[in-house]
Design a protein that fits this description.
Number of domains: 2
Strand content: 15-25%
Helix content: 25-40%
Radius of gyration: 22 Å
Shape: globular
CATH superfamily of the largest domain: Periplasmic binding protein-like II
CATH class of the largest domain: Alpha Beta
Order of helices and strands: HEHEHEHEEEHEHEHEHH
CATH architecture of the largest domain: 3-Layer(aba) Sandwich
Number of helices: 9
Length: 249
């Protein structure tokens, strides 16, 4: 009889354990509208895509919004499994696993229309100042910095601060993907003819989910996310999520 009770106890324990949901994967992001923002429904485009990709693989997630520099550091120290959306650069590739690209956008140089600046060749940017938010890569403007054409004179907390600095005349240009740039301008000032972009796009940014290479089982979780993202991209789900956040024609 003793063995029968023991067998029943083990059976019930196994059933209870099997029925418990998977532990939530902790993720961190920051303010980068319309891709990620605590003020947007579902956290923004890429936040919604990330959650949907994991959900398709039956993996629960929790999302925290922090300043970029802090979120990046805490991901490195394993307080979070991953952070997003990030672009690739050499220093990050040494430390992080990168997912497949989640979304792609062109980067433009924003300026004030009244500045009458032109950008046809790199030397047109000689002597200009720019703004780079804390924790952001300078990869997209690195060639201008290396040629000593543009100098970084401000490193505020976010893109919004850089747009405000541009309007105040504290910097000459600001490089940001065109969707985010116009989104912030419209949110701050409504339809505005004070801003413009100059020249062609200076780069094309792919945005990724990144996880520390030392995070336990990190590569397997990235692989799971990639499977989920591929699944979404084959469905209407991906297109419908993206469409909600793009400027209306």
């Amino acid at each position: 009889m003793h063995y029968l009770y023991l067998l029943l106890f083990l059976l019930i324990s196994n059933i209870t354990t099997a029925s418990e949901p998977d532990q939530q994967v902790p993720l961190v992001t920051g303010e980068f509208p319309p891709y990620s923002s605590n003020s947007l429904t579902n956290g923004g485009m890429i936040t919604e895509l990330v959650e949907a990709a994991f959900d398709s693989q039956r993996q629960a997630t929790s999302i925290t919004f922090l300043p970029w520099k802090r979120g990046y550091g805490e991901t490195l120290h394993h307080d979070y499994f991953a952070t997003f959306p990030y672009v690739k650069d050499a220093s990050r590739e040494k430390l992080f696993w990168f997912s497949r690209p989640i979304f792609t956008s062109k980067v433009r140089l924003f300026t004030l229309k009244k500045s009458n600046l032109r950008f046809e060749i790199d030397s047109d940017l000689q002597g200009l100042t720019t703004c780079v938010p804390q924790g952001y890569s300078t990869q997209e403007i690195e060639r201008f910095i290396e040629k000593k054409l543009i100098s970084v004179t401000m490193t505020p907390k976010n893109d919004t601060a850089c747009i405000k600095a541009l309007l105040a005349g504290r910097v000459d240009v600001f490089s940001v993907n065109e969707i985010t740039g116009w989104n912030i301008i419209n949110k701050l000032y409504g339809p505005s003819d004070k801003f413009s972009t100059i020249g062609k796009s200076i780069s094309q940014n792919n945005y990724y989910l990144i996880a520390s290479k030392r995070y336990p089982n990190g590569k397997a979780l990235i692989d799971s996310f990639n499977k989920g993202l591929s699944y979404l991209q084959k469905q209407d789900t991906y297109r419908s999520i993206v469409a909600k956040y793009l400027p209306k024609p």
